[in-house]
Amino acid sequence: MAAGTIDYDLHGLVGVRLEGAGHAEAAAVDRQLGGMRGALAREPDVRVRFVDRLDLEGPLRLLGTGDAGFAGDAFVLLRGPRKSRARVGIAMDRIGAGGGFVAERGLRGVPLLIAAVNLAALGRGVLPLHASAFEHRGAGVLATGWSKGGKTEAMLAFMAHGARFVGDEWVHVAPDGRLHGLAEPVTLWDWHLAQLPAIGARVGARDRARLRVLRAAAAAAARPRRGGRLAALLERQLHVDAAPARLFGAGRLAPAGTPDRVFLMRSWAAPEVRVTPVDGGAVAAAMAFSLQYERAPLLASYQQFRFAFPDRANPLIEDAPRRERALLDRLLAGRAAHAVDHPYPVRLEALFDAMAPYC
Description:
The chain is of the alpha+beta class. The protein is 35% helix and 27% strand. It contains twelve helices and 18 strands.
């Protein structure tokens, strides 16, 4: 391979290739993909080429308030992860089917990269599921649900009791039913760390110091006659992102798992944790809409792209809901599952005590 070319092999399911990547660009993508580097024996599903400056034909016409634009036949994203500034050309009509990105160097991360990986996986008959997965006493556990529904909390609760980590945030269900996680950083909130001192001790000293400062500032801002809006802003920053290997140790990372137990995680406005049986088909029906919600940022960019280029469609994006529902039904229909209703934030030990008997 040429200098600056780096391959990522995501469990043999999706391949990503960087071209012209410097140290900073490679480090940014490592964080996004969990550093899953590996030589590809086939053409990549997603390509990311880094350049000093995009070569555009004519002036850039803006879409919205500087989120995207287009020039000539190029569609350009102008925001990266967490609204950081970026200039990234994306072949939206071919994303997920061999198309990719051309990004100017210096960005914090490639926008829509995980969405492109998930779309490529879907095109190969793999179900990208918004979920966490782990192994507990020999049983594979899949915890899925709506955003902020308690998936990470379930994983953390069981990891505190010796479970093995498979994935968090996104789990790819292969055609053979095996579960493979993207090794993305795990987001740990301040209240997670307060309940998990052993895991919290593995978080870097700089991150712990930053949390102490933010916690004190949020408490001060929440006092009477202070700015409640500022307190809310500070509280939304009370988290750290850390690699699974750092949090749990490489020996507790499982390369794959099985969906022996399925939980639908749901937060509610009640103080107790309750576990009740639910039909797997109902979980599939609910998660079909969760996956559409998670794809919203990709769809927003796709709609901007179609505004700019009405004659250039992406059949895979438009067919994604049907493909997902078919794969969800194959995985879950007829399967016994359980719904877990819990307060949020939740006491992690109570969550474990409620779920463990069903594992």
